[in-house]
Design a protein that fits this description.
The strands form seven sheets. Strands 15, 16, 18, 19 and 20 form a five-stranded antiparallel sheet that branches. Strands 2-1-10-9 form a four-stranded mixed sheet, with helices on both faces. Strand 7 and strand 8 form a beta hairpin. It has 20 helices and 25 strands. Helix content is 39%, strand content 21%. The protein has 555 residues and is of the alpha/beta class. The chain has three domains: 3-249, 3-Layer(aba) Sandwich (Rossmann fold), CATH 3.40.50.12780; 256-321 and 323-437, Rossmann fold, CATH 3.40.50; 451-554, ANL, C-terminal domain (GMP Synthetase, Chain A, domain 3, 2-Layer Sandwich), CATH 3.30.300. The chain starts with a helix and ends with a helix.
């Protein structure tokens, strides 16, 4: 049974139980399983009136909301291929993706998003606002089951490549169904086997990551399949208040938020001072020495006091009182951050995957997470090291190909194996560690992926001839740039002022540093054919790079 039918069946079981809610302006509104099906029916009725054909594309451009979920299910159930788009992305980039996928219609969450697309693409296909889509009557209850086969494509999710050109990753119903079985099983394990709401109550989940990201979408589908109660954050600035109010059992994160939470605790405790700060500081020192097998006689006392008095207060203010684990993916998490949460008594479970692998390849074992690693391969998937220490995989989760790009599909799919472009290693227990990227793609701690070459060329276009630009930021919260040559600070800032406004927030360069000496073949920073040796540059200029990130933090 394809996953849409399974989730619809679960929603019918939960027809009188709240399954999805959202926080707006401090107020929580929600829908039961039956009410969500009714919204899906309204959207299906609207789509059916447009005389669309099976496998027509439906653009979905909106921020996270209950209606986003209903629209997504409605389109899939009507046999359409959903093209989810990141609502914070630049209109020109969104227009390029839609021109590539050629949707028959585009469904927008609000007028501002619609107007941005129309300005960037005057000849865009018909646009419809959610208010119009959900205003009519719903599809009759006896005609709500979807007509969906396992081999049918259900979505095209765009992901950046090293060329800077976004590619549409096609995922089938079979890909998603397989993955939901894996993720649901792992959450059953985390929650002690609980999968039905009438067994021990619903799982409570807080969710803030954009649905247009593959792992985020898979997570929400899994939660609905398990009959959980999902609360959506609709304002990222309100996460510190919304999260403990929801008191989730678990939720999906990117490293950027966990690192921000860690810094926030340190800053608040330092500001408050007093005996609490003294206990906290000594407990942190004791924990650090324990990890290095250098414990002192009084360390156990300080840690036990903190564990009894300070840490429970931190956990409750941070995430409420129900947390079983934090789940983290999209980018590498530093072992120091994972270790910090372990000190507080909070498990951090890592996952690893790509859009082309339906979001996930490995997941930490809830009973035995390995710090610094991303867990074992999920059952049913083969994963091994290929040439150049590249991770290659095959299994039911591997995408059928890129939309209208047979050559690029063939480049990554060879002899039945998908080539990830990542380097990794596996320990004796089967836990994987991601060493680095073979490609030059920068992955921010937010999970956003950026091709540095395109940005470097654009910045250099506004600088005097001969300047070299290197954009850095892998695993960081934002981008910085190294400019080599004789450009002045004013010239570089003027170039950034020209480039940044044209880019989405995550692609903007926030800080830069100047380097008088050019990168060359002679000093070893260029290859024989003149390409940047990025790893070597990052290693040699480590101090300069760290200084740039310290400058931004200080501000």
């Amino acid at each position: 049974m394809p996953f849409v039918e399974e989730i619809f069946a679960r929603l019918r079981e939960n027809s009188n139980t709240v399954v999805l809610e959202e926080i707006r302006d401090g107020k929580i509104t929600g829908v039961t399983g039956g009410e969500l099906l009714e919204l899906i029916g309204r959207a299906r009725n609207f789509l059916a009136s447009k005389n669309l054909k099976n496998f027509d594309r439906c653009g979905l451009l909106a921020a996270n909301s209950i209606r986003w979920i209903a629209m997504d299910f409605a389109a899939m159930a009507e046999g359409l291929i959903v093209v989810p788009l990141y609502s914070r992305q630049a209109p020109a980039e969104l227009a390029a993706m839609m021109k590539d996928s050629t949707p028959s219609l585009i469904c927008c969450g609000d007028a501002a998003l619609r107007d941005g697309i129309l300005q960037a693409w005057p000849g865009a296909p018909p646009h419809f606002l959610f208010d119009e889509i959900f205003a009519g009557e719903g599809k009759p209850a006896n005609n709500i089951d979807p007509q969906l086969r396992a081999e049918d494509a259900v979505t095209i999710i765009y992901t950046s490549g090293t060329s800077g050109e976004a590619k549409g990753v096609v995922l089938s119903a079979a890909n998603v169904s397989f993955m939901l079985g894996c993720t649901a099983a792992r959450l059953d394990q985390l929650m002690g086997g609980r999968s039905l709401p009438n067994q021990s109550g619903q799982d409570r989940i807080f969710h803030y990551l954009p649905f247009s990201f593959c792992a985020s979408w898979i997570a929400v589908l899994t939660f609905l399949l398990r009959g959980s109660r999902i609360t959506l954050n609709t304002d990222l600035t309100k996460i510190p208040n919304d999260m403990p109010a929801v008191a989730p059992h678990y939720f999906l994160n990117v490293p950027q938020l966990l690192e921000r939470m860690r810094r926030g605790v340190d800053e608040q405790i330092a500001k408050k001072g007093g005996i609490g700060q003294a206990i906290y500081s000594r407990a942190k020192e004791a924990w650090a020495r324990k990890q290095e097998n250098k414990s002192q006689p009084t360390d156990a006392l300080w840690f036990s006091v903190a564990d009894a008095i300070v840490f429970p207060t931190i956990r409750k203010k941070m995430v409420g009182g129900n947390l079983k684990a934090l789940i983290c993916g999209s980018a590498p998490l530093t072992p120091e951050t994972q270790d910090y949460f372990s000190m507080l008594g909070i498990r951090v479970l890592q996952v690893y995957g790509l859009t082309e692998t339906t979001g996930i390849l490995t997941m930490d074992d809830p009973a035995n997470p390995a710090p610094g690693r991303v867990g074992p391969t999920i059952p049913g998937i083969e994963m091994r090291i290929g040439d150049g220490e590249e991770i290659v995989v095959r299994g039911p989760n591997i995408f059928p190909g890129y939309w209208n790009r047979p050559q690029q599909t063939a480049e990554v799919m060879r002899d039945g194996w998908f080539h990830t472009g990542d380097q990794g290693e596996m320990d004796a227990s089967g836990n994987w560690r991601i060493v680095g990227r073979i490609k030059n793609l920068i992955v921010l701690s937010s999970g956003h992926k950026i091709s540095p070459e395109v940005m470097e060329d654009e910045i250099a276009r506004y600088l005097p001839p001969g300047q070299q630009v290197v954009v850095v930021g892998n695993g960081r919260g934002y981008l910085c740039a190294i400019v080599a040559g004789n450009a002045s600070s004013n010239q570089v800032q003027a170039a950034l002022d020209a480039v940044n406004p044209q880019l989405p927030h995550y692609k903007q360069v926030r800080v830069f540093c100047l380097r008088a000496d050019a990168f060359s073949i002679e000093n070893g920073m260029l290859t024989a054919n003149g390409k940047l040796k990025r790893d070597l540059i990052s290693a040699r200029l480590k101090n300069e790079i760290e200084d740039m990130y310290r400058v931004k933090q200080a501000v």
